[in-house]
Amino acid sequence: MYVIIVYDVNVARVNKIKSFLRKHLNWVQNSVFEGEVTKAEFERIKDGILRIIDEDEDSVIIYRFPLDFVPKREILGIEKNPIDDII
Amino acid sequence: MYVIIVYDVNVARVNKIKSFLRKHLNWVQNSVFEGEVTKAEFERIKDGILRIIDEDEDSVIIYRFPLDFVPKREILGIEKNPIDDII
Q1: Which residues does the record give as Mg(2+) binding sites (chains A, B) (predicted)?
Q2: pLDDT (tens digit, 9 = 90+) per residue, A18-40?
Q3: What's the ipTM?
């Protein structure tokens, strides 16, 4: 499946969540990651996020799409971080 | 069509872009808006964003989906802003 993850976490946990997500997904913008993952990877990513965030303070949105559905993305302004193929 | 918009703009322009997007879409998280729009509305939104942002400094990602395709959303942690039906 294809996922887009957007996080809004306390600055104390930003680096932690960013480096965790970089291991699994492509960095698209400051707080946005996306990529194709298996169901097992997806569960690992969710578990990892839950271990890092404070569920009473932070918020992480996960959008999930069917396999091979890659959403159309358009960027206005600068492309903060070009997609690199970490996967 | 359904759109998700994530912005990463200089703090000087955050309130401006937020209040602009609130007129057209639903606020999902700190810097994330989404909603169903017509093609004409979509063009107005893009024009509005381009008038507000500094294209050399800010970055706005627009994901676009076919009509009636509403992506599955899951939130880990707190729901920073419950969807309200502005539209």
Answers
A1: 8
A2: 999 999 999 998 899 999 999 99
A3: 0.83
